[in-house]
């Protein structure tokens, strides 16, 4: 067995010769090791931050953006958990008022005026809160004018409900409107080429849009690593 160098332009390729066959047996080309991309074709940068130490507390300073950047499963978990805790807390406040005033023991007395009519226990207090918060208003449970603390709690409930709705619904709307998956329908050429354009060597590649919708004022940013 012997090895020869066969020249193709400026590159050399190693070929082997067999003494018995008398021919050239080209050696199998080495499989090119696939390196991890610095930036994926969908625009996601494959860089992870580590060893931040105490810097993670900075994420809480901009809580809204932090929630938007979270994954969908965490967004849905926080969405459900926040509403569940807020509803149970407000329903407990209505139940505490009825318990302190003694409305639970005299709710069936027609001559007695409770803070909230037809509230006998915690489930009925929870249903009253849901009817009030969701503006369902069945008319069976209602607040009376003999309960100033209930009126104050009702105002607090309205303000707190508006804040929670604006925060969570706004977060979910912005997350759904982000075109992160739009890059999945953009195709890039497998290989880039270098050619002369306007007297300068220029790196060129193709970008194709699979959708029929037009992209207006599109901008492309590239990162070159040497």
TrEMBL record:
Recorded hits in SUPFAM superfamilies, A to Z, give:
Voltage-gated potassium channels
Q: Which residues form the Potassium channel inwardly rectifying transmembrane domain?
A: 39-179
Which keywords describe this protein according to UniProt?
Ion channel, Ion transport, Membrane, Potassium, Potassium transport, Transmembrane, Transmembrane helix, Transport, Voltage-gated channel
Topology within the bilayer: Multi-pass membrane protein
Q: What Gene3D superfamilies does the record tag this protein with?
A: 1.10.287.70, G protein-activated inward rectifier potassium channel 1
A Pfam family annotated for this UniProt entry: IRK_C
Give the stretches traversing the membrane. Answer: 76-100, 150-174
Q: Quote the subcellular location field of this record.
A: Membrane
Q: What is its main location?
A: membrane
Question: What sequence ranges are listed for the domain Inward rectifier potassium channel C-terminal?
Answer: 186-226
Q: Identify the domain of life.
A: Eukaryota
Q: Which GO terms describe its cellular component?
A: monoatomic ion channel complex
One biological process term in Gene Ontology: monoatomic ion transmembrane transport
Kindly state which reaction or reactions the protein catalyses. K(+)(in) = K(+)(out)
The answer to keyword Transmembrane applying to this record is: yes
**PANTHER family registered for this protein in UniProt:** G PROTEIN-ACTIVATED INWARD RECTIFIER POTASSIUM CHANNEL 1 (PTHR11767:SF16), INWARD RECTIFIER POTASSIUM CHANNEL (PTHR11767)
Q: Which family does it belong to?
A: Belongs to the inward rectifier-type potassium channel (TC 1.A.2.1) family.
Know the name of this protein? G protein-activated inward rectifier potassium channel 1
User: What is the organism of origin for this protein?
Assistant: Cirrhinus mrigala
């Amino acid at each position: 067995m012997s090895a020869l160098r066969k020249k193709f332009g400026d590159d050399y390729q190693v070929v082997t010769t067999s003494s018995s066959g008398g021919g050239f047996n080209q050696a199998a080309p080495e499989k090119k090791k696939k390196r991890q991309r610095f930036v994926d074709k969908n625009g996601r940068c494959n860089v992870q931050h580590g060893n931040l130490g105490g810097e993670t507390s900075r994420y809480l300073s901009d809580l809204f953006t932090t929630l938007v950047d979270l994954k969908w499963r965490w967004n849905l978990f926080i969405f459900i958990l926040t509403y569940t805790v807020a509803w149970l807390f407000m329903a407990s406040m209505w139940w505490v008022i009825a318990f302190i005033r003694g409305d639970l023991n005299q709710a069936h007395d027609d001559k007695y005026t409770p803070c909230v009519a037809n509230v006998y226990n915690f489930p009925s207090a929870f249903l009253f809160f849901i009817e009030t918060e969701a503006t369902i208003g069945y008319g069976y449970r209602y607040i009376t004018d003999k309960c100033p603390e209930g009126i104050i709690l009702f105002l607090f409930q309205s303000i707190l409900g508006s804040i929670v709705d604006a925060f969570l619904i706004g977060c979910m709307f912005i997350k759904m409107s982000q075109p992160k998956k739009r890059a999945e329908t953009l195709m890039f050429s497998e290989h880039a080429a270098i050619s002369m354009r306007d007297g300068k060597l220029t790196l060129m590649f193709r970008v194709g849009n699979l959708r029929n919708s037009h992209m207006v004022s599109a901008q492309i940013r590239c990162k070159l690593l040497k």
